[in-house]
Amino acid sequence: MNHVTLGQSDLRVTPICLGTMTFGEQVAQAEAHQILDRAVERGINFIDTAEMYSVPTRAETYGSTETIIGHWFAAQPQRRQQVVLATKVAGPSRGMHWVREGLGMTPADIEASCNASLRRLQTDVIDLYQIHWPERHVPMFGGLYYDPSKETSQTPIHDQLQALERLVKAGKVRAIGLSNETPYGVHEFVRLAEQHGLPRVATVQNVYCLIARGLENALDETLHRLGVSLLAYSPLGFGLLTGKYDQSGTSGPDAPADGRIARFESVRKQRWGRAEAYASALRYNALARDHGLTPTQLALAFCYTKWQVASTIIGVTSLAQLDEDIDAFQVKLSGEVLAEIDKIRWVDRDYAN
Questions:
Q1: Mean pLDDT, to the nearest integer, of 16-43?
Q2: A GO molecular-function term, please (predicted)?
Q3: Which CATH architecture describes the domain 4-348?
């Protein structure tokens, strides 16, 4: 598997990244360590986590995913040198009092969160430290419209960058990134970094999949022109693009009990629970089968081969799922299939954006 450089950093990663938000909720520690071992054995060198994981986030499991990964490093110290480790500082808590008190994300919050992540991960340095969602009020996780009247920002982007710079200078962070960002946010982070000699963002981690291609409406140009790499998350549309919901007749409560959408009430209220997103997924899944592919193969091959994507983040709950997702890297989509994908999008647009 080839390696790609993230932005203008010195981080070299595989085009597949192992996401870990299932560790500590759907996946127990022993199984999580098996998945981590298999991923490295199969050539993946990139692991992504976050302080708020596992998901769905709650006080009882806050930090559990980082803790599980930290135990893996402690048990096999050589593993830390074999992977590029990414984690995230949560944005404004918005009711998640167990993350932090208050509404904002101050420089002190950023530094405290980083230090706590380092302890849980049992490492001296985080290779890629990302802001999980903007400190500004922006539409995300299925929100459609920007509303200036809801702005609650208390910490300017310049101050956030200065906090991240202190972490870089202290040797605790190698490179920085953003997540769930807008074109404005990326431009402003890069502009201020270049103007004031502060760390430059290397990556943006945003949703990107067959039923959520809104990134192609402006953000992809921003990333290309500014030299920032995309880390695509939810390539399987929270399971909608695997085909496992196709016979349920709904993406809501009647979905398979072991599926994420059935387990996570909050998700059903966001983009993945929309009837339109489910109907669109059905069309893509049928297209895959019409061309001798599984829905998973189609969805992952789409992300794996798009010029916009530097690395695709896969989340799994078993070794079988991991192998299936990695094997899909060998799938090449024909021009005919790609044309059919665009035909569906012309009608459906991006219902899960």
A1: 97
A2: oxidoreductase activity
A3: Alpha-Beta Barrel (3.20)
